[in-house]
Amino acid sequence: MLRIEPLDPRHNAVIAAAVLELQRAAYTVEAELIGSVGIPALQETLTELRAAPQRWLGAHDADGLVGAVAYERLADGTLDICKLLVVPSAFRRGIGTALLDALDAVEPAERIIVSTGTANTPARRLYEGRGFVRMRDVEVAPALWITQFERCC
User: Fold this and answer.
1) What is the Cα–Cα distance from 110 to 42, expressed in whole angstroms?
2) What is the distance between the alpha carbons of residues 110 and 12, in angstroms, rounded to a whole number?
3) How far apart (Å, rounded) are the C-alpha atoms in residues 133 and 24?
4) Strand partners, 5
5) What residues contact 58, with CB distance under 8 A and at least 6 apart?
6) Which is more confident, 153 or 66?
7) Mean pLDDT over residues 69-92, rounded?
8) Degrees, nearest 5: CA angle 15-22-83
9) What is the per-residue pLDDT for 41?
10) Residue 116: CB atoms within 10 Å
11) CB-based contact 146:116 (threshold 8 Å)
12) What is the pTM of this model?
């Protein structure tokens, strides 16, 4: 059974370490999909993760932390999904969808934005299936393209 609850990596070193491990595992797969290790989250340190202003929800099952979503509320009320992470061994089990559903429930927003690697087809399908619309593709570093999505409620 999947349990989703708030995480506090800023004030809990054990949770921060678990989130960083999950993040590295998830973004290593994305790096392979998009053909670039230039994803900033792959180089993020524990100190940087703990200092970041994002709020987190985590998904736990019998194996422990299997997914997480980091988000921020922008000044105009937009909800910015900064990271959506799923441990590779739990891909295609609905964890990303469950995290997005939980986020909608705890942080309703008129406008939500998210980005993913343009070549990350599974993530793009997830967002499109949840009503996000592709806004633009942006080259954020040489040969590193992201697609920006938006959903207005």
Assistant:
1) 30
2) 31
3) 27
4) 58
5) 4, 5, 6, 7, 15, 19, 65, 67, 68
6) 66
7) 96
8) 95
9) 84
10) 22
11) yes
12) 0.93
Q: What is the DSSP string of the chain?
A: --EEEEE-TTT-HHHHHHHHHHHHHHHHHHHHHHT-S--HHHH--HHHHHHS--EEEEEEETTEEEEEEEEEE-TTS-EEEEEEEE-GGGTTSSHHHHHHHHHHHHS--SEEEEEEETT-HHHHHHHHHTT-EEEEEEEEETTEEEEEEEEE-
End-to-end alpha carbon distance in the chain: 29
**Percent with pLDDT over 70 in the chain:** 99
Q: Residue type at 98? A: A
Task: Let me know how long the chain is.
Answer: 153
Would strands 111-117 and 79-86 be described as parallel, antiparallel, or unpaired? parallel
